[in-house]
Amino acid sequence: MRDPIDVSPLVGELLGLDLVNTRPLGADGRADLLGTTEQLSAWLALEPVLDSNLRGAVPTSADLAFVHAVREHTEAAVRALLKGSRPPTSVLRGLTEAQRAAPAVRNLHWDGTAVVATYQRTGRLGVRLAAMLAEAAADLLTSPAIVSLKECEADDCIMLFIPSHPRRRWCSPTRCGNRARVARYYERHRASARETVRQRD
């Protein structure tokens, strides 16, 4: 198992999956890559699809609870779908309520040559962030691609991904893919060495 201190957030999937993947397996069980306000700020900076009114925001410890609740609901829903089960009604209701608490409104303004619209949410940061993440979860759960959802095949990984090609087996070729290839390489050489010893005997 990997030490949770060495685990960094895996980004690049749909935002809802990136959120779920902030709870990887570590040496002592599940790690929490959004366990502190500093970690949440760092993760927000890695995500390219955030609402502009959330960029640069400094979360407080109270904001973490809103994010953790949406992450818990999102994971419960996607894990249920991964097993071919119906997501719990309470989980879907929780994601809906998080969106309802800070809906995105098109703010119209004049940029000097034309009317432009930007989406903005109002309310405290944690509520706005939870709404945006719950909306990303809704996009994920209703996407046709959700039927392709997979869990990483590495023994000590539970990261989720939607493969861009059908042969993809790992959450990341540089994380689990390399470790699996190295493990196979050493196993082949151990087997070869055992066979050589057996033939000598």
Automatic annotation (TrEMBL):
Q: Pfam families annotated for this entry?
A: ABATE, zf-CGNR
List the source organism. Kribbella sancticallisti
Domain Zinc finger CGNR positions: 149-189
Task: Name the InterPro entries on file.
Answer: ABATE, ABATE_dom_sf, Znf_CGNR
This protein's name: CGNR zinc finger domain-containing protein
Highest taxon of source: Bacteria
